[in-house]
Amino acid sequence: MELRLPIPPEQLTRAERSILDFINTNTDAFLFLSIGQLAERLGLSEATLSRFARHVGCRDFKALKTLVLEQAAAGPAVKLAGTLQRSGRFSPRDWLASQQACLETTAAQLDEAEFDRAVAALAGAGRIYIHGKNASASLARLLHFRLRRLGLDARLLPTSGSELLEGLAGAEKGDVAVLFSFSKLSREGRILLEQSHAAGYTTLAFVSRTCLPPDQAADINLFAYRGPEKEYHSMAAPAALVDGLLVALTQELGPRGAAALERLQKLKKQYYPG
């Protein structure tokens, strides 16, 4: 990154220029270093680092980190540093409270009619194709596992490449494609949406944006809040939403879903008794 300062670089001392150069070229490392650790790494005093922070318009070293966070690209390390910077020393109680806030925001934004449409689409689907990559792959696997236990024809799509196209080739009208599209629509997600127009299947997306461009919106969109933009993005609310969808789907399937679970239970007793 290139940190934008309220003063020109020419007004910085040699030591201050070395600090700025470290921030620009080692942004992720800077965000996780204490003032003492950074002073030792650069061979400078903590007083020099504090003076630099004030010279560039920040109250102290912590405020300097906040300035860097505001300007840094929101990669995984920056997001995690933002969470730690906000909370100071990590507290599991505070963390769980923040996850509760994510759940509450998700509940407040939940469109129950859209949720009901998702349940009906899955219950009536011929086949269900599921795609998730990176962190979302865990949610895709959870959904795949639970749907198959209910006796539904669920298929986990490869994450990318021509294998994805091969897996999707058989999708047709009456099928449902589920995708996880949180911060932005991936290339694979765009393929799933575009192909649905030609093949006729229904698309269901888990999203973290309330306003979607028409070309990035699925037929059914379920919102889950994952936290502030430049902080660590939790999967607590999306996982809870997936679980809620599965519970509602089980109720919608009624005897059909119960029968599949009973068959599984009998097999377990037969081959894995006790």
UniProtKB/TrEMBL annotation:
A Pfam cross-reference name: HTH_6
| Residue ranges constituting the HTH rpiR-type domain according to the UniProt record | 1-75
One GO biological process term is: carbohydrate derivative metabolic process
- Tell me which residues make up the SIS domain: 118-255
GO molecular function, one example?
A: DNA-binding transcription factor activity
Its protein name is: RpiR family transcriptional regulator
The organism named in the record is Allofournierella massiliensis
Q: What is the lineage of its organism?
A: Bacteria, Bacillati, Bacillota, Clostridia, Eubacteriales
